[in-house]
Write the structure tokens for this entry.
Amino acid sequence: MAPYRSSEWFGKTGKMGFLYRSWMKNQGTPDHMFDGRPVIGICNTWSELTPCNGHFRDLAESVKRGVLEAGGFPVEFPIMSLGETLLKPTAMLFRNLASMDTEESIRGNPIDGVVLLTGCDKTTPSTMMGAASVDLPTIVVPGGPMLNGKYKGTDIGSGTAVWKLTDDLKTNKISYNEYLAAEGCMSRSAGHCMTMGTASTMACMVESLGMCLPGSAATPAVDSRKKIMAHMSGRRIVEMVKEDLKISKVLTRAAFENAIKVNAAIGGSSNFVIHLTAIAGRIGVELNLDDFDKLGSKIPLLLNLMPSGKYLMEDFYYAGGLPVIIDQLRKELNMENITVTGKGHGENIAELNTCYNTEVIAPLNEPLIPEAGIAVLKGNLAVNGAVIKPSAASPELMVHTGRAVVFETIEDYHARVDDPELDIDETCVMVLQNVGPVGYPGMPEVGNMILPQKLLEKGITDMVRISDGRMSGTAYGTVVLHVSPEAAIGGALALVKNGDMITLDVPARKIHLEVSDEELALRRAQWVQPAYHTDRGYVSMYQRHVQQADKGADLDFLVGGSGSSVQRDSH
Ligand code: FES
Ligand code: MG
């Protein structure tokens, strides 16, 4: 093997070699670590402000032990960490920024292979996007879900419990003190959301793409085997560098197709669509919105996890985890496409395919829902598409025509939704405008609007809702999301008025505003584009360059990659 790229730093003689090595030695690094061995970057998204990744300093130590054992030189580095719960106005606004941070941190440093430590929703796609644009050997260590939430003798799930308990509080089914007690009961160990929310979806995406060791996705954060996975990933990345097994060899079109099919079978988050599309854009794999419907919508739901079902990630792990799902779908999947192990899924899961609980993972011939994947809707209301997750929706609302009740902004929604005078009933369609990538900005998870109090009190649990935003992967309901083009750039969503009729027809993949083209043209002529939120900083750049949801909401100039070579020295 030719010298690794780190030798362009540590292998130099003279002044530059002195510079590149000397400062590293202040950390107690002996001479022999600079002898040309693979240097492994451990990209750590640890932060106390990203509680889901709060255990990552420990996890990084396990990776380091594995790297050292295999003869590599581990170097841990931080990047911007995105926590889903605290970051305002939404972590999604910064996904592309963190991806730039990851990309430049890898490329600019003496790194031959990368380990990505990922957990909370955006930490996975952002680091994957950045790593893909550099294209070095890369392995992911998914940080693992929290243990099941336990509350008053029942299991409660991250996020899902918040929506449910908030409805209960609003209708006086529980007291405020009970509500408060549930907070600690829901989040009781290290790890990310343990529902099949976006973080679990992303971990399963990583595993189905072949980017982590088999079985990693479902292993709980606090299980000792999570540390073993991290340790073994550290060993493996050193070999991957020696084999020159770059991320682009793993992330082929076949890998993306596998991920789409697996995501359908697990009832994964609608956010999967945006993130997978953005990753594909970075690695140069052709993938469009229609592929998700074509490849995934006929795949049956096998995994019985909240929010679509009953159980949680810990149960999924004990039932056998993702290898069981991959095994059940083997006729649908490409089992040969190379993964980080250097082998295909077929070989990877040969001894991991026993299902230990068919309540949690249903057999293929008795699925929970026969066709579960994300459906892509089109029509005059969403010319470039919108998505709905049928496994989280109500069957009786899948074909529905109703009167639009329009909220122009999220503030407008909050101000009026619980007003007893609001002219709305359960047959109406709730429309929320200006929560797309440009409009909010950052496309927050507000699409699953909580229903008006007066309808909740009537016992109504679901209504058709439409927006250009996203919804939390832990949420549920008949919710049409990611409408493209979004309202803030003049999509038809901006032109909807109170009282317009809207037809949703999921089997026909249609979302239609029952307003004539002439009337729409008139309204369009009167439409005034909302001003950008700011003229400076990252947000200004984001609003001017972000692509629409159907393209993955990446910044236009970040699509593709720049490879790993850097021509000039630093001094
Ligand atoms: Fe971090 Fe859900 S909030 S994974
Ligand atoms: Mg989320």
User: Anything to note?
Assistant: The first strand starts at residue 39 and ends at 44.
